[in-house]
Specification:
10 helices, 2 domains, two-stranded antiparallel sheet, 2% strand, globular, 74% helix, mainly alpha
């Protein structure tokens, strides 16, 4: 299709960004939507982010177990205390997140330029503000409902273990849990899982992405399983908010909202 340049009155293809004759910008030009990864890379992102964290974390912890055995011999209690100590836990989390982050970026390489470009769009930050405000408002409302109904709730095991590390290693925690963790999860569950499922059905993509994202923060082996269940809505609301803004505002929106949310949580733990 041809269109007439409003400046020189010559016709040129409407898909052109500039008039080839006078160089003036095409006022009706629209940038193409950022290209999505192919389904194989989307599945690989999800697989590496979902299973890779467990596998890599287990391998690193196994190395520390060997170190613990060389130090404490057959003293199982001492080995367990060593493996669950703050320095070892922080090191395992830091190395695991760094490796996963590197692997995910490598897998998403064909789309990294577009993902970074999304941070230049102002609408992304409007989406991030919406997501953060939604999560914050929901958390307040849900907490009020729990108070009114007399239901007591404490941080779940996932948050409690993070809180202890944040207080001991605040700077590393801000980097690992405040930045690397959220970005890895956005690449895994939004760029990977959600985009893959959305090829078939948008509603199903929302539901499964929210469910899986919520359950990865659930401790099935917790002693107080009721407390874990009570905490589910907090994570489910965040999962919905991140998925919604990713779908409507792009990667920068969900990533920014997720990072800000986690940084806010980290800082709150220090106060």
């Amino acid at each position: 299709m041809l269109k007439k340049c409003p400046y020189c009155n010559k016709e040129y293809p409407e898909v052109s960004r500039y008039c080839p004759y006078c160089g003036s910008p095409n006022p009706t030009y629209k940038e193409k939507e950022e290209k999505k990864l192919d389904f194989k890379r989307q599945l690989l992102l999800f697989g590496v982010g979902f299973l890779g964290f467990q596998i890599i974390g287990t391998l690193i912890q196994f190395i520390f177990m060997l170190v613990g055995q060389s130090r404490y011999g057959s003293d199982k209690n001492a080995i367990v205390s060593y493996l669950t100590s703050a320095p070892v836990s922080m090191f395992v989390n830091s190395i695991t997140y760094c490796l996963i982050f590197t692997l995910l970026l490598f897998i998403a390489m064909p789309s990294v330029k577009n993902l970074l470009k999304s941070f230049t769009k102002s609408k992304a930050y409007l989406g991030a503000i919406f997501a953060f405000a939604f999560i914050y408002a929901f958390n307040i409302l849900y907490s009020v409902i729990l108070d009114v109904t007399g239901v007591s709730v404490a941080s779940n095991n996932n948050q409690s273990s993070l809180d202890s590390l944040i207080k001991i290693y605040p700077l590393f925690s801000l980097i690992v849990f405040g930045f690397l963790g959220p970005v890895c999860e956005e690449l895994t569950y939004r760029v990977g899982l959600f985009d893959f499922l959305k090829r078939k059905n948008r509603i199903f993509a929302y539901v499964l992405t929210i469910v899986i994202f919520t359950l990865i923060h659930f401790d099935f082996a917790a002693d107080n399983i009721v407390n874990e269940l009570i905490n589910i809505p907090y994570y489910a609301s965040a999962a919905f908010a991140f998925t919604f803004v990713y779908d409507h505002f792009g990667f920068a929106a969900s990533a920014t909202a997720h990072v800000v949310n986690n940084l806010f949580s980290c800082i709150s733990s220090l106060i």
